[in-house]
Design goal:
493 residues; 12 helices; five-stranded parallel sheet; alpha/beta
């Protein structure tokens, strides 16, 4: 991918939003900014795998043709001579730019700004099966597609994403799969009457409509009590863990813009015990929440929604000590999780749903007991049980990092290590847990939270990463999508 192609795509994005920046201003910024130059350059870097590995042989199957799976296919195709690669993916829009759904939900982008066709990004020579994997048999090196077609492999890469498990919340039916199968029952509930979720495309669009409805309701509101807007964070790992906070920031910004912020209470209910898992970023977020007048409640997990009456029930939990006796009559003191239900009335609520791996992979021998995430060595991303199986992206069972930024690091590790194993060598490339959350804190500001398994900030640029910055907003809105779509999906960025 040549630099001028990346620049061309960036400028196309700029042209869509002339109210923020003109093309002339953008060119000036792109020319003068070391930050912009480094991002563009990253999309032009070639593969790093040793040329001596390029003649390895074997049939490679990739489950999932989203950003992670298709990028991995492209990088393998760039690296291995006469590669035999098959991608299995049913969704014709699988490579749509999921990180942009927050911007759609905040009214910054339109839905068609993030929609891309799978077939436009299949690497030359890579075979595509337009179906769903319905079972995996790693003992016999095969997968079954749509319950009937048997596909064998020498090496398997699992990039199946994460399913949105809305049905884990009473009052909401169905599950939206990572393969793009939107459940009609879910969409009937979580797209209207003040109940929203940006985690699927139609849901993102409906969230923006819901924010506009909240603003209209606030303008007409004359009561003494404030309208209630609730934002949730679930009790499972989730992709784009910052999205539940991004949407509260954007809702706040839109209410301020409309002059009705004082009429709406914004409350963030999280199952966790902190707002952000990295202490330095948590301190910054707490200050941002305080400055904006947000309320928040820890250890609150959404369990039920009465959509008709707009009542949400949360399990408010705590740890209690309980005594018991062992077989010898000795006292044993253990801590157990005890929950009591608490209810919140809402006028607007944004749900971040519980998530899990797709059943076909999560309930196979590749998955773990909790959530079905693929059990791997967290550094090499090789299966803990099957040396010819690898995981990349949201379904990888690693401690952190269900983000596009994580996948961008992981897919290179998987390619390098798999090629080493195919060549009879040990996997030596190591993933350090890098992840990034461009935390949108308003219309025009982003805190670029980068970190790894050290749980310390690991900024890519010589700037204080705990600060909200306009320059990071420009990176989020203009640079990251072209870098992903034309850098990462070509296997180079």
């Amino acid at each position: 991918m040549k630099k001028n192609k990346i620049l061309e795509e960036i400028l196309k994005e700029v042209d869509k939003h002339p109210e923020i920046m003109s093309r002339r201003e953008a060119l000036k910024y792109l020319t003068m900014s070391p930050l912009a130059a480094s991002v563009i350059a990253s999309a032009s870097v070639g593969t790093s795998t040793a040329a001596a590995s390029s003649d390895v042989k074997g049939k490679i199957v990739i489950i999932g043709g989203g950003l992670a799976g298709m990028s991995t296919a492209a990088r393998l195709n760039n690296t291995i001579s006469n590669a035999d690669i098959t991608v299995i993916e049913p969704d014709p829009m699988s490579v749509s730019y999921q990180p942009g759904q927050t911007l759609v939900a905040g009214g910054i982008w339109k839905l068609d700004d993030i929609q891309y066709k799978r077939d436009d990004f299949v690497p030359s020579g890579v075979k595509l099966i337009k179906g769903s994997v319905t079972s995996v048999d790693p003992d016999n090196n095969k997968v079954i597609v749509d319950g009937k077609e048997e596909v064998t492999y020498d090496q398997l890469i699992v990039a199946a994403g994460a399913n949105l498990n809305y049905k884990a919340i009473k009052g909401i039916e169905g599950e939206i799969t990572s393969a793009g199968a939107d459940n009609a029952a879910t969409k009937q509930t979580v797209t209207k009457n003040g109940l929203h979720s940006l985690y699927f495309q139609d849901g993102a669009k409906a969230t923006w409509e819901g924010i506009q409805e909240l603003i209209a309701k606030a303008k007409a509101h004359t009561g003494a009590e404030k309208l209630q807007a609730i934002f949730t964070h679930p009790n499972t790992p989730l992709k784009c863990g910052g999205a539940p906070m991004k949407i509260i920031y954007l809702t706040h910004a839109r209410l301020v813009e409309a002059g009705v912020r004082d009429k709406v209470e914004l409350t963030f209910n999280t199952d966790g015990g902190v707002l952000f898992g990295i202490p330095e970023y948590n301190d910054a977020v707490v200050k941002q929440f305080e400055a904006r007048g947000f309320k928040w409640n820890f250890k609150h997990n959404l369990t039920e929604v009465d959509a008709l009456n707009k009542v949400a029930t949360f399990d408010k939990w705590k740890m209690e000590k309980q005594e018991s006796e062992d077989e010898m009559g000795e006292k044993i003191i253990t801590e157990v999780k005890v929950a009591e239900p608490v209810q919140f009335k809402y006028d607007f609520m944004h749900i971040a749903p519980p998530m899990k791996a797709p059943d076909a992979v999560g309930t196979s021998k590749l998955g773990s007991a909790a959530g079905g995430w693929i059990t791997v060595n967290k550094e090499t991303l090789q299966s803990s049980f099957f040396p010819n199986v690898w995981a990349v992206g949201d379904n990888a069972g690693v401690p952190m990092g269900k983000t596009g930024g994580s996948a961008r690091k992981q897919y290179k590790i998987v390619v390098d290590n798999m090629i080493s194993v195919m060549g009879g060598k040990e996997p030596t490339a190591k993933y350090d847990g890098y992840t990034v959350c461009p935390l949108i804190t308003g219309i025009g500001t982003v805190m670029m939270a980068e970190f790894n398994w050290t749980k310390k900030p690991t900024p890519s640029f010589p700037l204080d990463p705990t600060k909200e910055r306009w320059i990071m907003w420009l990176l989020k809105v203009y640079l990251l999508k072209p870098m992903t779509m034309y850098g990462m999906l070509s296997g180079r960025a």
